[in-house]
Design a protein that fits this description.
TIM Barrel; 18% strand; single chain; alpha/beta; 8-stranded parallel beta sheet
Length: 219
């Protein structure tokens, strides 16, 4: 089983102190930094773009796990690559040609992720799992932090893990949306090895980031 990793979402951080918040996450044991990019079009919210990510890149050596919730996504991939993304995750619905976009990310020497909304079926990516490094299973509909975890996606995680094992593939299974101390165990047992969490990491236990990260890992 792959080591459990935590990718804290800075969507729940203090945006006036983002650089310091990222340093706190690194000190607290985060494995990577999850950056939610929203365009107010593909999802109903606006967040940050390449210039901000480029400035934040100097704050940590941790990998930037950049989740692009923008459409059309293909023409912006290179901008986020240059800004400092290490993993670039896109939605199938946000590109005219998923294979072309995957190849584009790969040619930029970045890890490739594909994200599936709660109502997006696994069969959309089943035949290309050997081309990607990460599958991000959304356990809420993307757009806003602090939403409640949708338990119906647990079966999708289990099915994805089964396909991964049967085909002897090596991609990561990441889960994002309402992850807390109760459901982290459920998604890990279902097959996830990377958990994205924002509210729980920044708010629980009076903001004790290290304690919250360790608790999500079940340590």
């Amino acid at each position: 089983m792959k080591k459990i990793q935590i990718s804290p979402s800075i969507l729940s951080a203090d945006f006036s102190q983002l650089g310091n918040e990222i340093k706190r996450l690194e000190k607290g044991g985060a494995d990577m930094i999850h950056v939610d990019v929203m365009d107010g079009h593909f999802v109903p919210n606006l967040t940050i773009g390449p210039p901000v990510i480029k400035r934040l890149r100097n704050c940590t050596k941790l990998p930037f796990d950049v989740h692009l919730m923008i459409s059309p996504v293909h023409k912006y991939i290179e901008d986020y690559s240059k800004a400092g993304a290490d993993i670039i995750t896109i939605h199938p619905e946000a590109t005219d040609n998923l294979i072309d976009s995957i190849d584009h990310i790969r040619k930029l020497n970045k890890k490739v992720g594909v994200s599936l909304n709660p109502d997006t079926k696994l069969n959309i990516i089943e035949n290309i799992l050997d081309k990607i490094d990460l599958v991000l299973i959304m356990s809420v509909f993307p757009g806003f932090g602090g939403q409640k975890f949708m338990h119906e996606v647990v079966e999708k995680i289990k099915n994805l893990k089964k396909i991964k094992d049967e085909k002897k593939l090596n991609f990561d299974i990441e889960v994002d949306g309402g992850i807390n101390f109760e459901n982290s165990k459920i998604v890990i047992e279902a097959g996830a090895n990377i958990l994205v969490s924002g509210t729980t990491i920044f708010k629980e236990n009076n903001g004790n980031i290290k304690k919250n990260i360790d608790s999500l890992k079940l340590e």
